[in-house]
């Protein structure tokens, strides 16, 4: 298996293959996709997730659609693939509407043949021209890669409603014959995994999880205070301690006292080169700040959680949470901004009991719309009628907040991804479009549908077909509008009860996530315990939880003594595998600490770090029996003592003579 994937890597990315080798999880996930399986891959931040869809997509020899949540992340990934010599198409709001239409026409007509197409879930869910173009090219699309797939789950802190519409898009374009699907993320809990696997037809056996999810190179420190003044004083102490390092301070409030702007101003007064960062800034302004941080023009960023997914700065050395995150997942995602280069980093969580209360009452509870808000927005969308309406989704924040609640509870349905008016056409060459255009004086899409005898979907498809086939010219920008219809004239008691329960279930679940996180903060005494409990929660195999020491090769091992052995092997150019399964019959195996290929047979190296301990000794005696029976003369042993380095070097010299 490895050799095939490695050969593909060397073939498609020779420049990268000269610099590094694929990690085991990258090879496993790629092979799983090539074998025809929808795959969920969970691996840590900076673990090389994107290379999996690069290699898998090219190996499947078609177009890969990459669904990604942020324009900055789309542009960064598109640039990196382009540097490797592959054609990429990006579709997002940073591209002019006229150019977007031109690109989609060329794509649909096979004048453009990119290897990768990048798009956001919101654009995918609302852009009918894009969907129509993908239907024209569906035979060429072999992979759907969903980055940051944790945004799909309704149970996740980072839930993005239109991620849940991706299966609807796939059904519309491909019917039941989906391309292979690859989901990528760094953290998922059990509920989220179940939700995602159900949505994308991923079986449990096709969940590939990196045992390196525990980020042991990041020191986790947490300090509880009795009041906010003490907490702020500690913040300034920490900034002074880490004055010459890149520091990211997370808050979840932009304005008012101790918000991002307030603390930024105080930091500047204290002589720090500080900025603030939040979601209300323009994409351009946020990107400029990120670039300055990368270039060391900024020392400290005070940020909301808008500073998150897709921001790749390798040398952030300190992350400080000045307010408590909502969950284990959010906390681990955010501390994962540090140490992307694998170097040791420090993180601090500063919190009070008041922070926990406020997180529930002001942040979690207020993240849900009130029933009055849901009633008002329902009336705004529908006019309390059950006929079709155009809904310019991106023009109204209240609509963006409330629409998922109506869709998820079968109150509204989307009839089509359409336009608001036909009064954008000139030089109409298509007789059917000419007929539709002349049906009404106002040229409105809904009134045209009513008089046409067609459904909204049929009319929109005719419009997009005419655009793609250049049977019309556009005199104005092609707008995007969801065509929705209500199943009710008003929200009555039954619908309100359903909505109330829907909100309450989610609110209760989020409270429980926060309660569990605060429980871990109270019971874990040090960084190692907190990492391990988070690892258990995220589903890391208990066998791998104690692998916390990184070697020069990049492995994680269980002890500092094993680091010494691994590094000496690496320096001597002796190829080894750590804890590789060694099957001594059809069903049973042992895991030598180090397996080394020497000629026609392997050498197995065991380091006995706890010899003299009763349970350890019993396990070792069983292992000795296996080695003596199945692998005589293939075992090397070292013991825990100050002369370990000398003992290891002697064994390595012996091995090199055997090669």
UniProtKB/TrEMBL annotation:
GO terms for cellular component: chromosome; cytoplasm. It comes from the Bacteria. Residues 222-382 form the Helicase C-terminal domain. Keywords: ATP-binding, DNA-binding, Helicase, Hydrolase, Isomerase, Nucleotide-binding. GO terms for molecular function: 3'-5' DNA helicase activity; ATP binding; DNA binding; four-way junction helicase activity; hydrolase activity. It catalyses: Couples ATP hydrolysis with the unwinding of duplex DNA by translocating in the 3'-5' direction. Residues 30-206 form the Helicase ATP-binding domain. Transmembrane segments: none annotated. The keyword Transit peptide does not apply. Pfam families: DEAD (PF00270), Helicase_C (PF00271). GO terms for biological process: double-strand break repair via homologous recombination. Its EC number is 5.6.2.4. Belongs to the helicase family. RecQ subfamily. PANTHER family: ATP-DEPENDENT DNA HELICASE Q1, DNA HELICASE RECQ FAMILY MEMBER. This is DNA 3'-5' helicase. It comes from Oceanobacillus zhaokaii.
């Amino acid at each position: 298996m490895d050799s095939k994937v490695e050969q593909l890597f060397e073939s498609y990315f020779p420049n990268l293959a000269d610099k590094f080798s694929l990690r085991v999880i990258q090879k496993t996930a790629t092979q799983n996709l090539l074998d025809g399986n929808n795959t969920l891959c969970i691996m840590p931040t900076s673990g090389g997730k994107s290379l999996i869809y690069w290699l898998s997509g090219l190996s499947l020899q078609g177009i890969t659609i990459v669904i990604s949540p942020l324009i900055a992340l789309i542009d960064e990934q598109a640039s990196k693939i382009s540097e490797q010599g592959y054609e990429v198409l990006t579709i997002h709001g940073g591209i002019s509407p006229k150019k977007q239409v031109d690109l989609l026409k060329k794509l649909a007509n096979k004048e453009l043949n990119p290897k990768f197409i990048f798009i956001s879930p919101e654009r995918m869910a609302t852009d009918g021209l894009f969907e129509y173009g993908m239907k024209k090219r569906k035979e060429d699309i072999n992979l759907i890669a969903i980055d940051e797939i944790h945004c799909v789950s309704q149970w996740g802190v980072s839930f993005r409603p239109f991620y849940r519409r991706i299966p609807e898009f796939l059904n519309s374009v491909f019917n039941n014959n989906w391309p292979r699907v690859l989901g990528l993320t760094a953290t998922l809990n059990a509920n989220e995994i179940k939700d995602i696997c159900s949505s994308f037809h991923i079986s449990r056996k096709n969940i590939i999880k990196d045992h390196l999810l525990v980020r042991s190179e990041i020191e986790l420190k947490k300090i509880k205070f009795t009041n906010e003044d003490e907490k702020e004083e500690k913040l300034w102490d920490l900034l002074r301690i880490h004055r010459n390092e890149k520091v990211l301070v997370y808050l979840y409030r932009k304005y008012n006292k101790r918000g991002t702007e307030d603390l930024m101003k105080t930091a500047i007064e204290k002589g720090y080169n500080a900025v603030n960062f939040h979601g209300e800034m323009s994409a351009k302004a946020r990107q400029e700040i990120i670039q300055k941080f990368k270039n060391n023009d900024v020392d400290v960023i005070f940020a909301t959680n808008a500073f998150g997914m897709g921001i790749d700065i390798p040398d952030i050395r300190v992350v400080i949470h000045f307010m408590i995150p909502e969950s284990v997942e959010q906390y681990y995602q955010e501390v994962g901004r540090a140490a992307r280069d694998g170097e040791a980093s420090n993180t601090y969580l500063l919190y009070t009991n008041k922070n926990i209360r406020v997180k529930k009452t002001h942040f979690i509870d207020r993240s849900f719309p009130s029933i009055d808000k849901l009633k008002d927005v329902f009336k705004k969308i529908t006019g309390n009628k059950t006929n079709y309406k155009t809904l310019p989704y991106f023009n109204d924040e209240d609509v963006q907040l409330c629409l998922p609640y109506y869709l998820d509870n079968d109150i509204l349905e989307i009839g089509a991804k359409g336009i608001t008016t036909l009064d954008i056409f000139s030089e109409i060459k298509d007789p059917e479009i000419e007929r539709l255009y002349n049906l009404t004086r106002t040229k409105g899409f809904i009134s045209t549908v009513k008089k046409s005898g067609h459904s909204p979907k049929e009319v929109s498809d005719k419009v997009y077909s005419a655009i793609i086939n250049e049977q019309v010219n556009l005199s104005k920008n092609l707008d995007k509008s969801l065509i929705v219809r209500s199943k009710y004239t008003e929200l009555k008691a039954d619908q309100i009860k359903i909505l109330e329960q829907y909100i309450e279930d989610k609110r209760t679940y989020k409270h429980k996530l926060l309660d569990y996180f605060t429980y871990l903060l109270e019971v874990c005494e040090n960084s190692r315990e907190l990492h391990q409990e988070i690892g258990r929660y995220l589903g890391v195999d208990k066998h791998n939880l104690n692998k916390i020491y990184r070697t020069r090769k990049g492995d994680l091992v269980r002890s500092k003594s094993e680091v010494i052995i691994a590094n000496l092997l690496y320096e001597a150019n002796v190829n080894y595998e750590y804890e590789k399964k060694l099957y001594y019959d059809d069903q049973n195996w042992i895991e030598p600490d180090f397996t080394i290929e020497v000629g026609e047979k392997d050498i197995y190296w065991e380091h006995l770090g706890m010899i003299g301990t009763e349970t350890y000794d019993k396990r070792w005696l069983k292992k000795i029996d296996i080695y003596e029976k199945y692998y005589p003369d293939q075992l090397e042993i070292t013991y825990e003592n100050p002369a370990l380095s000398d003992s290891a070097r002697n064994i390595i010299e012996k091995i090199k003579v055997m090669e």
